[in-house]
Design a protein that fits this description.
Blueprint lengths: L1 H7 L2 H14 L3 H23 L2 H17 L10 H20 L9 E3 L5 E3 L11 H16 L4 H11 L5 H8 L3 H21 L5
Antiparallel strand pairs: 1-2
């Protein structure tokens, strides 16, 4: 089996497999290493889809959290990057459809770092029957992070993620300078990224 993998997959993909095995066994450094490898390409792919830096950062957090939470179910039939990008694209498409954004500006497929084609299934504009379940699942996922944030960030994050307010609306709601809101949300997002990559128990 190992020989077959050596023939099928690149050295990077095989290293990913080793990191996944270690992560599933509870090695937080393996989670961090996987995020370090793929955070930037996932973010840039999502940014091309939504054309909004803040949304792209939020969706990147969600994508890694969903992937890491399901890592024990990953099968080595294809590369980790293929699997991760599919999770990220599907999550982003759900967001786009929910927001009814006309921002999807990427081909229906792309090639990952091992030369494998990854399909992006963009369905019609009708809402998926499971959208409410997906929304609830995302809310529950983010709530895990929010509860562990310092209190001064919790209300900001809830307004952003659960009430889905814009930065300007949050500033108005809290009677706070827009720059302060942006800076604090940026810091909260960094803390949530740290939770995803460093603490398996968070997800």
């Amino acid at each position: 089996m190992e020989e077959l993998e050596e023939n099928r997959f690149s050295s990077k993909a095989l290293e990913d497999f080793r990191l996944i095995d270690n992560a599933v066994d509870g090695d937080d450094k393996a989670f961090a290493r996987l995020m370090q490898r793929y955070k930037r390409p996932v973010y840039h792919m999502i940014l091309k889809m939504v054309r909004n830096v803040d949304d792209a950062e939020d969706l990147t957090i969600e994508s890694f959290a969903k992937a890491f939470r399901s890592l024990h179910r990953f099968k080595k039939d294809f590369t980790f990057s293929t699997w991760l990008f599919r999770i990220a694209t599907n999550n982003t498409i759900d967001f786009i459809r929910k927001k009814k954004l006309n921002t999807l500006s990427i081909e229906n497929s792309f090639t990952d770092d091992d030369g494998q084609s990854v399909s992006i299934d963009v369905e019609d504009e009708n809402l998926d029957p499971q959208e409410e379940a997906i929304r609830i699942q995302k809310a529950e996922l983010i709530q895990v992070f929010v509860d562990k944030l310092p209190p001064k960030y919790q209300k900001l994050v809830r307004l952003r993620y659960f009430h889905e307010l814009s930065y300007e609306e949050i500033a108005e709601e809290l009677d706070a300078p827009l720059g302060t809101v942006k800076a604090q949300l940026h810091r909260a997002r960094e803390l949530m990224f740290d939770m995803v990559k460093n603490k398996r128990d968070h997800i």
